[in-house]
Amino acid sequence: MYLIYSLIFITVLSLFFTSAIRKNSKIFYWIASIIASGTIIYEIFRLISDTKFQGLIFDFEKASMKGNFSIAFFVLVMFAGTLNPKWSITKKLLSIRAESAILGSILILPHGIMYLVRFIVKLINNKPISTLYIIYLIVGLIAFIIMIPLFITSLKKFRCKMKYIEWKKLQRWAYPFYFLTYIHIVLALLNDDEVDILKLSVYSVLFITYFILKLIKTHKKNKSVNTI
Ligand code: HEM
Questions:
Q1: Residue 58: is it exposed, middle or buried by C-beta count within 10 angstroms (0-12/13-18/19+)?
Q2: Contact, 210 vs 178, CB < 8 A?
Q3: If you count DSSP H runs as helices and E runs as strands, how many of each does the chain have, helices first?
Q4: Residues near 35 by beta carbon (within 8 Å), at least 6 away in sequence
Q5: Per-residue pLDDT tens digits for 71-94
Q6: How crowded is the C-beta side of 141, counted as CA atoms within 13 Å?
Q7: CB distance 172 to 81 below 8 Å
Q8: Which helix (H) or strand (E) holds 185?
Q9: What is the pLDDT of residues 26-71, one digit of tens each?
Q10: What does the DSSP assignment read for 81-111?
Q11: To test the ligand 1 pocket, which listed residue (1, 39, 64, 66) has its Cβ within 8 A of the most ligand atoms?
Q12: Mind listing the pLDDT tens digit for each residue in 177-216?
């Protein structure tokens, strides 16, 4: 359920506090950085002490570690680019697209870093590792590496140093990033002893709807270009 709560919370936050996010983006980046650092510190503590705490704050940490907050922001970035631009919801999402991409990137850092650390610890301790686990980790790592330049060039400081055409070209890497992220998530969920059908369905509905809308939009655009 963390995923659904995260999707609802982040969507409501983005649609009702759009101008607050745009005007005070640095404050939101700081909040995301505090959540990300807190998650990393707790996960290191968990690795060292082998202790696990219960309670709301730790449910929150688990949603952060699983990438649920991050994926909620990336889903808004994806749909901002495919929904009807005349709709007010699309205009709102487009007005904070860079901020949402930056927040999504900050919030996925603990996930990528600490799951890699966990993988290395498993290797060192000769723990059993399935082939599917290695495959989805590699897919996740490639997605993570593609995300880094997209993250950095979403920041105004770096974006304004680039030519628009170069920046636009680089942003095209967002599509393989979304695709690899979806494959990564599906394989990770299929690797669980008990496959969470609800999660698999929610992720699949979101990503497949996005890919279909994107294909339709690209097709329409190409058609209008060819008729000129
Ligand atoms: C270094 C790169 C990455 C590593 C090592 C990694 C590792 C993992 C692992 C181990 C899981 C399974 C978690 C579990 O079931 O407990 C997982 C699931 C997941 N990963 Fe990654 N990942 C990486 C990159 C990414 C990226 C870039 C994204 C998205 C932007 C992402 C999003 C997710 C999501 C949403 C799940 C499913 C969580 C859930 O709801 O159960 N991962 N990842």
A1: middle
A2: yes
A3: 12, 0
A4: 64, 69, 107
A5: 999 999 999 999 999 999 999 999
A6: 12
A7: no
A8: helix 174-190
A9: 999 999 999 999 999 999 999 888 777 778 888 899 999 999 999 9
A10: TTS-TTSHHHHHHHHTHHHHHHHHHHHHHHH
A11: 66
A12: 999 999 999 999 999 989 999 999 999 999 999 999 999 9
Residues in contact with 208: Cβ distance below 8 Å, sequence separation at least 6, in sequence order? none
* pTM greater than 0.90 (yes/no): yes
Q: Which residue has the tokens 């609800």?
A: 198
Q: How far apart are the CA of 69 and the centre of ligand 1, in A? A: 12
DSSP 163: -
- Residues lining ligand 1, CB < 6 A? 3, 66-68, 70-71, 74, 108, 111-112, 115-116, 137, 140-141, 143-144, 147, 181, 184-185, 188, 192, 199
**Closest C-alpha to ligand 1, atom 10:** 115
User: Which residue's structure tokens are 């290797």?
Assistant: 123
